Amino acid sequence: MFRILYLSTANQPFSTNDLAKLLRAARSKNTAVHVTGMLVYSDGDFLQILEGEYQSVTGIYDRIISDPRHGDVSVLQRGLGYGDRLFPNWSMGFKRVPDQTLVDEAVGVNSRVKLRYLDAMSALDFLLACSRSQT
Length: 135
Hints:
By secondary structure, the protein is an alpha+beta fold. The chain is 35% helix and 30% strand.
């Protein structure tokens, strides 16, 4: 099982409709190549984990980083994961954390922390917590 966990910043605002379109496309593409994962959008930042076969995951990730809607991409974790998939039921789980929402209500992270400041382990914990209430 290969995984990439990364952060990126939206180069443009994403409306609810924009996010819905992005999710439909991601879920379709991910299902076709057996990639699973979780995506969180908050305050203009994306936090995402992709998991599956190496070529499938890196292919999707390469398309993401070349997408002009994303910038300032930071890989938090990349490599082989141990055990089973962490997000086996989601071709792409999704959680939008509204701006100014107290993050600690959902996942036990200090409410002043933005996604951009999470380290790899905190980001993974955050994604797992969000997956329990994903849409």
